[in-house]
């Protein structure tokens, strides 16, 4: 019963953004031009990765998973209970599944500061 309640709580906190709503938020959070990538680049990536759904999750064959609106990898960037992680963003992957995407944006900024930039996705 507690597991079901926790799952329902997580689902109710998720959000699917409209393109314009997400664009405004990403602009406010300073992503337009961040790391040399335009707002259009960020929107395109978020749409391709999650269709703007903060609750998106993708499980991979190696037991790692991608989480949230930017599909951030548990293998390198966050920690979950299923796979070892470098946890470079110092966060729990489940935190990337809520409607508040501030932590997703902070981690995405960290990812693009690496040599691969957006190619990390």
Structure description:
There is one protein chain. α2 crosses α3. β2 (65-67) and β3 form a beta hairpin. By secondary structure, the protein is mostly helical. It has a three-stranded antiparallel sheet. The chain is built from four helices and three strands. The protein has a single domain (19-113), classed as Lysozyme, CATH 1.10.530.
Architecture blueprint of SSEs:
Elements: H1 2-12, H2 19-28, H3 39-50, E1 57-59, E2 65-67, E3 72-73, H4 102-112
Antiparallel strand pairs: 1-2, 2-3
- Helix-strand pattern, N to C? HHHEEEH
Mean pLDDT equals 91
The class by helix and strand makeup works out as mainly alpha
Tally of helical runs: 4
Overall 3D geometry?
globular
Beta-strand residue percentage:
5-15%
> Over the alpha carbons, how many angstroms does the gyration radius reach?
14 Å
Number of domains: 1
Q: Major beta sheet, specifics? A: 3 strands, antiparallel
Question: Ends: how far apart?
Answer: 36 Å
* CATH class group: Mainly Alpha
Number of E-state strands: 3
Instruction: Return residue spans where pLDDT drops below 50 for at least 5 consecutive residues.
Output: 8-12
CATH architecture: Orthogonal Bundle
Helix share of residues? Answer: 25-40%
Strand arrangement within the widest β-sheet reads: 1-2-3
CATH T-level topology: Lysozyme
